[in-house]
Amino acid sequence: VLDPASAALRYNLGLLLHQVGDLDGAEAHYRHALSLEPSRSDMQSSLLCLHDFRQGGSRQANFEAHRDWARQWVDPLGADPLGEGAGFSPVDRDPERKLRVGYLSPDFGSHVIGGFLAPLLDHHNADRFETFCYSCAGRDGPLRERLVGAAAHWRDLDGLDDAAAAAAIRADGIDILVDLAGHSGGNRLAVVARRPAPLLMTWMGYLNTTGMQAMDYRICDWGSDPSGAERWHRERLLRLPHPQWCYERAVDADVDDTVATSKRQGLGVRFGCATRFTKLNDAVLALWIRILRAVDGATLSIIDVPDHPRADRLKARLAEAGMAGRVVLLPTLGGPAYWDYLASLDIALDPFPYTGATTTFDCLWMRAPVVTLAGDCGSARSAASIAAEMGLGELVAHDGDEYVAVAVRLAADPARLAAIKQGLRARMRQSACCDPARFTANLEGLYRQAWAAWCEGGAMVEQHPPGRGGGA
Question: Which of 105, 239, 256, 399 has an alpha carbon 20 to 30 Å from 312's alpha carbon atom?
């Protein structure tokens, strides 16, 4: 570290180590930075983010850490009720009127969150909902222009402090404000805590509780957060009847995967991993080695491998296991090269405990079935929720031994593998996740239910698991 007394340098080093999966190193630098500058709530948020990537740990302790963060940093900001002393008009509690919905995010430039939001903005019912996008970061990117055109209103909050940003949202008369960041980088939870809208929700960008008293709902789904997950949240859970991501196939994803398949004839099964290197850990690698040992001639390719000592340790571990010649480590791939890579796979292996969402959809679209291990929280159940929606529950494991067995069994049954691959795009096209009009209608239905409950005095939306009175 060039300046040991610089909290900013320590924090940035922690962020870099987090990106390459050195969680212990990241935590050490985050804590050192906080010791130098203890007033930085964003550094505390980064510490909370580490939990989803770690093996083991107590959900109760994790919940308490989020709650304690909120009590220290943001809960006191919501002490002033909406509108009192601020000069804003009273809220019209008409349950059927047109609603103003605002989306708050630092990731409207090129992040996957913007990609998930774009088709929803295109399909919002303009007669019933008026959409606002509040951008917290002045970053340009390929998605920004599209989002600006799709939203009814666009506001740049970059450069405004938290109080001014909250006042700007209040001035727009927003009825439902949806935070898309949670504790992820660039979040503006201190804006949300000031309650700039009657109803506050969080969704997509952080698959855990914010810990905040002010946050009314967390939007999720029955697969990612089944019954009982409420006890780990300060928010009420508002569940969609299908996975919580609306997947819009990338424009450049029309790879001719029949060509890639023909090239594989006579070769062993090709396993692959397309998710961030950050998500890899020793427990994941141990199971992948077991799979390779059980499937003669199989190979494994891993993308997004950085030029970092942690990658060197991965190579050494593979060499010690006798797998150096059967595992290919590749850099980050983009554009057509990424889709070509997915098309070359027979079976994708999902890491854990932080499972894939975007990459799960990408793999399935390119006809690579995904073997996943379902954990006990939203970030550990994303791929499992998507698999269930696609009718692929047979690919979801619940412990390490089952994970290995599922992968080995599928690799040993070429007829079953071919049948799954052939039908994957049809399964996706039939899913609400790939039908933005249906997805948006379901989301708007949740908004309307929550709004009606608020108009009745703040009662929470009652939902029941599918098969017991219906879902959302």
Answer: 399
Identify whether the C-beta of residue 181 lies closer than 8 Å to the C-beta of residue 105.
Answer: yes
β-strands 396-397, 299-302 pairing: unpaired
Q: For residues 192-204, give the mean pLDDT.
A: 96
pTM for the predicted model, two decimal places: 0.93
Rounded to the nearest angstrom, the gap between the alpha carbon of residue 265 and the centroid of all alpha carbons in its chain is 36
Identify which of 198, 241, 234, 194 has the alpha carbon closest to the alpha carbon of residue 218: 234
Count of beta carbons in the 10 Å neighbourhood of residue 107: 26
Q: ∠355-361-367 over CA atoms, to 5°?
A: 115
pLDDT digits (tens, 9 = 90+) for 40-72: 999 999 999 999 999 888 899 999 999 999 999
| Bridge partner residues of 273 (DSSP) | 302
Angstrom distance (rounded) from CA 363 to CA 353 = 18
Q: Please return the burial class of 379, using the count of CB atoms within 10 Å of its CB with bins 0-12, 13-18 and 19+.
A: buried
Terminal-to-terminal C-alpha distance of the chain: 51
- In this structure, are residues 314 and 277 in contact, taking their beta carbons and an 8 Å threshold? no
The total number of residues shown for the chain amounts to 472
Neighbours of 432 (CB within 10 A): 18
Calpha distance 312→300 (Å, rounded) = 17
Sequence-distant (≥ 6) Cβ neighbours of residue 411 within 8 angstroms: 269, 271, 291, 295, 298, 346, 347, 417
Q: Are 404 and 290 in contact (CB under 8 A)?
A: yes
Residue-wise pLDDT for 371-391, tens only, equals: 999 999 999 999 999 999 999
Here the tokens at position 371 are 């073997």
